Amino acid sequence: MRRLWILVLGAVPVMASAQHPERYALAGDAVAVYNLAGVMRIEAGSGSDVVVDLTRGGADQARLRVETGPLRGRATLRVIYPGDDIVYRSMGRGSNTTLEVRDDGSFNDDRDHGEGHVRRHPTGRRVRISGSEDGLEAYADIHVAVPTGKRLEVYLGVGRAVVANVAGELRLDVAAADVTADHTKGSLRIDTGSGDVHLSDAEGAVGLDTGSGDVTVAGMRGHSLVLNTGSGDVTAEQVAADELRIDTGSGRVTASAIRAPAVSITTGSGDVRLDLASELGSLDVDTGSGDVTVTVPPGAGAHVDVETGSGDIDLEGVALKATRLEKSHLVGEIGDGKGRLKIDTGSGEVRLIRSR
Q1: Which residues have a Cβ under 8 Å from the Cβ of 73 and sit 6 or more positions away?
Q2: Do 36 and 104 meet the contact criterion of CB atoms below 8 Å apart?
Q3: What's the chain's average pLDDT?
Q4: Does the pLDDT at position 292 exceed 50?
Q5: Which of 302, 293, 307, 304 is nearest to 344 (CA)?
Q6: 3-state SS of the chain?
Q7: CA 91 to mean position of chain CA atoms
Q8: 113 CB burial (10 A radius; 0-12, 13-18, 19+)
Q9: Tens digits of per-residue pLDDT, 8-41?
């Protein structure tokens, strides 16, 4: 039997080698990491240094440059993208965001840091990141290992951010990305221009802010919990804090199993449902348009002032000693009257319920 051997030139398969992470160690108590596109994972680390593992991706990954060194009082790592148009396919077709980026690769760190003080630094160039346009196709996935007690600032343009088991002072600022944080301890502040924020099992002082997106908290204890969204729903449960503040321009607020002596909820438009599991200290609820339902524990006592521009006021299981009783305005006391409860809605029904 004759055998036929066929040689096909140019058809030999080539296995692409996996991209190996680049490792950087950043010494010092204060560290900052900057990256315009990619997945950011921040987890607990050991030793004395913050360790960064960086993996490049995209057709133009070789053009990325990584710089380290002190910047504005912190040790830093900055991924430099040499172009004004960046393509990050994971964003999807039609998605884009624009940032102002300095030549040193830093961005967004001149925002208000929560103390009424805005730091001003020289402005840079405008960089557009899109999911399907032409430009520099590159990104960097970054893993940050953070030893206990460090102060870390992370700045991300687009992609996704995940935080787990970090104990220290963490500020995470993203332009357009979802953020998930779990098992954190210490000061935590998360700001995103657009994206959902999910937090679970946190301890310390926490502030979560998104311009557009939902905010969800499942389990928090500590000094303060501050939740803000320009447009999006807010959900919080199992919160034990000295202070709880929720502010949404447009969106529904649902808070359950709340133990906080000071609670403030403000929404421009959206229903509010609050279930208190501890005695009343100070409670303020203000909504421009939306129904408000507040459930208080059996022994709660407070001075009550409830007003609605358009809507009914209902008391369920609440014995009120009224000093003013009108269809749209109610003033009086429940229990010993020691706390303070004020509810104001421009348009919506108000229900005050005593739990069993």
Answers
A1: 30
A2: no
A3: 91
A4: yes
A5: 307
A6: CCCCCCCCCCCCCCCCCCCCCEEEEECCCEEEEEEEEEEEEEEECCCCCEEEEEEEECCCHHHCEEEEEEECCEEEEEEECCCCEEECHHHCCCCEEEEEECCCCCCCCCCECCCCCECCCCCCEEEEEECCCCCEECEEEEEEEECCCCEEEEEEEEEEEEEECCEEEEEEEEEEEEEEEEEEEEEEEEEEEECCEEEEEEECCEEEEEEECCEEEEEEEEEEEEEEEEECCEEEEEEEEEEEEEEECCCCEEEEEEECCEEEEEECCCCEEEEECCCCCEEEEEECCCCEEEEECCCCCEEEEEEECCCCEEEECCCEEEEEECCCEEEEEECCCCEEEEEEECCCCEEEEECC
A7: 19
A8: middle
A9: 333 333 333 347 899 999 999 999 999 999 999 9
Q: What is the pTM of this model?
A: 0.89
Query: Each residue of 310-320: pLDDT tens digit?
Result: 999 999 999 98
> 């990104």: which residue's tokens?
139
Tally the C-alpha atoms within 13 A of residue 292's C-alpha that lie toward its C-beta: 32
For residue 331 the two structure tokens come to 């003033």
Residue 293 and residue 351: Cα distance in Å, rounded?
Answer: 5
Q: Which residues sit opposite 118 in a β-bridge?
A: 112
**CB-CB contact of 222 with 244 (8 Å):** no
Supply 73's token pair.
């009082």
Number of neighbouring beta carbons within 10 Å of residue 340: 15
With pLDDT > 90 as the criterion, what percentage of the chain qualifies? 84
